[in-house]
Amino acid sequence: TYVVTESCVRCRYTDCVEVCPVDCFHGGPTMLVIDPQECIDCAVCVAECPVDAIYPDDEVPADQQDFIALNARLAQQWPVINRREEAPADAADWESVTDKRDQIEE
Ligand code: SF4
Ligand code: F3S
């Protein structure tokens, strides 16, 4: 499966969702996650993300491993998102912030 990592938090560009052939992105207030039970490993979403937030699960950086479980858990909680939405007004300000787990709203 593919995994959305910390870069997505408060950037939430949603470019990724329109290319997913199986609608496995789920949207929360400040980030998106991928449902590991639905993802078919096609990889097309990776290049769509302007902040490189998406990785295959076996290539998730060491300091982002907790996002594997976080995607699985929150995909059960958040609704499917398959239409692009306007990014947050301050999304660009968050691109360079690396430590932003505390901004994940469930
Ligand atoms: Fe969807 Fe393919 Fe990305 Fe999985 S790898 S989330 S199936 S676009
Ligand atoms: Fe997040 Fe990148 Fe998609 S910022 S919403 S994973 S395009």
Automatic annotation (TrEMBL):
InterPro entries: 4Fe4S_Fe-S-bd, 4Fe4S_Fe_S_CS, 7Fe_ferredoxin, Fd_C, FdxA, RnfB_subfamily
Record bears the keyword Repeat: yes
Region entry Disordered, spans: 85-106
Matching Gene3D superfamilies: 3.30.70.20
Cofactor(s) it depends on: [3Fe-4S] cluster; [4Fe-4S] cluster
Bias kind Basic and acidic residues: ranges: 97-106
GO molecular-function terms, A-Z: 3 iron, 4 sulfur cluster binding; 4 iron, 4 sulfur cluster binding; electron transfer activity; metal ion binding
Residues of the 4Fe-4S ferredoxin-type domain: 1-26, 30-59
Keywords for this protein: 3Fe-4S, 4Fe-4S, Electron transport, Iron, Iron-sulfur, Metal-binding, Repeat, Transport
The keyword Electron transport is annotated on this UniProt entry: yes
Pfam families, alphabetized: DUF3470, Fer4
Function as written in the Swiss-Prot or TrEMBL entry: Ferredoxins are iron-sulfur proteins that transfer electrons in a wide variety of metabolic reactions.
PANTHER family to which the protein is assigned, alphabetical: FERREDOXIN (PTHR42859:SF2), OXIDOREDUCTASE (PTHR42859)
Stated name of the protein: Ferredoxin
